[in-house]
Amino acid sequence: MIHSTALISPKANLAQDVEVGPYSIIHENVRIGKGTKIGAFCEIGVQTALAHDPILVIGEYSVVRSHSVIYAGSKIGAKFTTGHHVCVRENSEISEGVQLGSRGDIQGDCSVGSYTKMHADVHIGKNSKIGSFVWLFPEVLLTNDPIPPSDILVGPVIEDFCVLASKVLVMPAVTISKNSVIAAGSIVKNNILEGKLAAGSPAKTICDARILRMPDNPREKAYPWCHRFQRGYPHEVVEAWISDASNKVISK
User: Fold this and answer.
1) pTM above 0.70, yes or no
2) Which end of the chain is more exposed for a tag (fewer CB within 10 A), N or C?
């Protein structure tokens, strides 16, 4: 259903069952997959000279909620879900199943892996690289300029299965390795090794995250989190996690 007040360019390509809410604008060179819902007051496919490709692709069964703005030149996978008032800039590669919370901001030339979940007010600086199955909790900030303001932009790298708790600040060029956990309010200035818990300002490695236990069940290891938490993930993904856990020492 296309609302009567929506403005759709005749050069946009929308699947037949796409829904577009009141007063939204869909620009030319936009391709939207089947089953996708665009909320009210959205602007999709904003043209910019910074885009390497004028085409914007939004995969099937996505949900873009009201007052969101997505620029041209990005490729977004299926089942992309946003909160309200989000912004996604040009040249971003976003994989399947990504969630971006209200007021979230993904700047240009970023990549985000499959099923990464970003809560409200998360800012992803230009040139950031985020892996799959990452959790970024409210007000996480990924920066990219070591001498601001400058043209030296080097975004952080957040690898698969990492957890960044609320209000974590990650400095430019930092790598947070797979399965790491960063405590709330930390400022990460140095690389974090795989599977570590880091905390503080500046963040320092505290211990191996695998020693942490669930507060309601001390027998259960808290990390890697995918061994205990599967809600909201596709069955085939969870099955792969279980298989991987049964064949690795890290699960012991």
Assistant:
1) yes
2) C
